[in-house]
């Protein structure tokens, strides 16, 4: 049964001096699945991934990755893992091809270069260009190719679509699905709910160094939070709007402007809005931290930070 | 380790070419100036005697300047460790910490390469770079030696380059060690540079004041032979310097094995 797990983490604790980055992470990732690791900035996503690769050492906790101990079998493990760092930095004085050759040499020249060229074509990346002349998005593509090129059993990707335009994001989603279809396990972090919804088969949510939820991506809709700024042609009473389930008033400016927050599905709100003389409407997705704040404030979940503090008091 | 060695050597290629070229040109200039120095004979010694003692103290064999040993020592080996030391210390300090600060080490360490392989691959690449530069220096003395009347064999000319290599590797390894302890590669480089220059000044001052001689015994440059090695190598001193270089490198390696690799940027002085 244990072999069915690509990643197994128990009670992982990591502190940077007084800063507690991970407060006891427990997580299991099944082989062959795409797991989205969702959390706001500073939640502990990168720290968890870097612990799995033995780039940093936790104070306590247990980890098994592809059945191996990352500390004791780090080289054997890394030969089976493709990694994309969240803050990708590459040597500027090499071309893309030289950069990929260097990583391939470190991997014992196992990569299939026809596959590398195909990846470069799909991602519209020129292999002959010097890395220093590449945009952030193109550097990200180099990072993605180096992670994928040896067809690893496990992909650890920290914010894989960072810096990519929406079309390229779709290409990356397709490549990850292809990798999964080829038998790979994909563990990727993100702070964008829609991205996780788009590709993940399962989601783990981390906040303040603790896994607060593991769920199907469909459950994320409950956490979806949008803010609507409305302007009306004439003075209105917005009580019928705030009466809709999941809708709360954020701000009211006079009797012609209002800002409303909608939690979950927007169908009821849109239908109710149809009866109003709307002259302008703006919609924003809230940041994940704002979503979490609202989510926890509403009492649907206990805030892990408060739980930790409570545990400390005991 | 081999892949990292090759890659590091490739990264250092322009420094190797530039420094080798500089050393060769300087050597050739000095080599072709040698016959006129010999021709001056005792006149140059009389001239040197007029120099202030404080200046002469930094060139131990200055009164032998008209001999091959004295000429090599005064004009090349008495300060070449300071000059090539800039490259050795700078490269040593940035060998791992530099990449860590630039954020490029993270991805390298995520490849199937052991920390030991990465460390020693880079360290041996630095050693190879210094060997190439010093080999260029040696050849640029050895090739014209007959034509300028320098009565030394190629082997004799090679001997002083060995302590020079050892002392350079010692300070490079020390810079590497300090880069594992201090918050930034540049601080490690500055600290090691200060140690080298401080030791050089102390060596000169110890020639003026005998009370400083016992202190000198505890410093690396006391065991650096310089040009006098053409007359016979102090093997124990050479091995001692090499052992100290290896010891510093080994200490840096142990610290690197236990180190958390940063995503980028320098560490801070704050104790955490």
Describe this structure in words.
The complex is a heterodimer of chains A (314) and B (272). Chain A is of the alpha/beta class and 314 residues long. Chain A has two domains: 2-221, Rossmann fold; 224-297, Alpha-Beta Plaits (2-Layer Sandwich), CATH 3.30.70. Chain A has eleven helices and 13 strands. Chain A has a six-stranded mixed β-sheet, sandwiched between helices. Chain A is globular. Chain A starts with a strand and ends with a helix. In chain A, 40% of the residues are buried. The model of chain A is unreliable at 307-314 (pLDDT under 50). Chain B is an all-alpha fold and 272 residues long. Chain B is 71% helix and 0% strand. Chain B starts with a helix and ends in a 14-residue tail after the last helix. The interface between A and B is medium-sized, with 32 and 25 residues.
Give descriptors for this structure.
A: alpha/beta, Rossmann fold, Alpha-Beta Plaits, 2 domains, 6-stranded mixed beta sheet, 4-stranded antiparallel beta sheet, 11 helices, B: 272 residues, mainly alpha, globular
């Amino acid at each position: 049964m244990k072999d069915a797990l690509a990643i197994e983490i128990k009670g992982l604790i990591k502190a940077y001096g007084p800063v507690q980055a991970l407060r006891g992470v427990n997580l299991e990732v099944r082989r062959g699945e795409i797991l989205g690791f969702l959390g706001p900035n500073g939640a502990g996503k990168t720290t968890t991934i870097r612990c799995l690769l033995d780039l940093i050492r936790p104070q306590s906790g247990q980890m098994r990755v592809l059945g191996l101990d990352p500390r004791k079998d780090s080289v054997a493990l890394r030969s089976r893992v493709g990694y994309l760092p969240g803050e990708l930095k590459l040597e500027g004085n090499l071309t893309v091809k030289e950069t990929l050759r260097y990583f391939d040499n470190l991997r014992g020249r196992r990569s299939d270069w026809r596959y590398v060229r195909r990846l470069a074509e799909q991602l519209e990346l020129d292999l002959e260009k010097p890395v220093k002349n590449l945009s952030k998005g193109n550097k990200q593509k180099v990072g993605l190719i180096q992670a994928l090129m040896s067809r690893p059993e496990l992909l650890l990707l920290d914010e894989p679509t960072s810096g990519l335009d929406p079309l390229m994001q779709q290409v990356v989603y397709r490549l990850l699905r292809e990798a999964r279809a080829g038998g790979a396990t994909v563990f990727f972090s993100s702070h964008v709910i829609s991205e996780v919804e788009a590709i993940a088969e399962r989601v783990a949510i981390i906040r303040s160094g603790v896994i607060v939820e593991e769920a199907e991506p469909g459950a994320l809709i409950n956490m979806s939070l949008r803010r609507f700024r409305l302007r009306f042609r004439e003075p209105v009473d917005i009580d019928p709007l705030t009466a809709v389930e999941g809708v709360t008033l954020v701000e009211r400016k006079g009797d012609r402007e209002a800002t409303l927050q909608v939690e979950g599905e927007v169908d009821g709100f849109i239908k109710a809005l149809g009866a109003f003389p709307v002259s302008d409407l703006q919609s924003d997705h809230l940041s994940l931290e704002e979503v979490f704040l609202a989510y926890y404030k509403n009492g649907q979940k206990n805030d892990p930070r408060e739980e930790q503090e409570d545990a400390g008091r005991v | 380790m081999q892949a990292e060695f090759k890659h590091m050597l490739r990264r250092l290629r322009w420094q190797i070419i530039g420094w080798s070229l500089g050393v060769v040109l300087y050597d050739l200039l000095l080599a072709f100036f040698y016959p006129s120095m010999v021709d001056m004979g005792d006149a140059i010694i009389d001239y040197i005697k007029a120099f202030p003692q404080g200046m002469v103290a930094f060139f131990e064999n200055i009164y032998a300047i008209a001999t091959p040993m004295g000429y090599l020592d005064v004009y090349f080996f008495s300060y070449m460790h300071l000059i090539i030391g800039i490259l050795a210390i700078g490269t040593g300090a940035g060998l791992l910490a530099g990449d860590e600060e630039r954020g490029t080490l993270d991805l390298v360490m995520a490849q199937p390469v052991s920390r030991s392989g990465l460390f020693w691959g880079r360290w041996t690449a630095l050693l190879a770079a210094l060997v190439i530069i010093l080999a260029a220096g040696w050849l640029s003395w050895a090739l014209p030696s007959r034509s300028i009347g320098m009565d030394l064999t190629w082997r004799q000319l090679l001997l002083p380059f060995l302590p020079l290599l050892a002392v350079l590797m010692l300070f490079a390894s020390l810079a590497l060690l300090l880069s594992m302890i201090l918050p930034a590669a540049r601080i490690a480089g500055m600290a090691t540079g200060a140690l080298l220059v401080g030791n050089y000044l102390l060596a000169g001052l110890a020639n003026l004041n005998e009370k400083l001689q016992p202190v000198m015994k505890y410093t690396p440059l006391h065991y650096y032979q310089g040009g006098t090695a053409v007359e016979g190598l102090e093997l124990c001193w050479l091995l001692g310097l090499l052992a100290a270089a290896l010891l510093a490198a080994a200490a840096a390696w142990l610290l690197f094995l236990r180190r958390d690799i940063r995503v980028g940027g320098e560490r801070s002085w704050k104790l955490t």
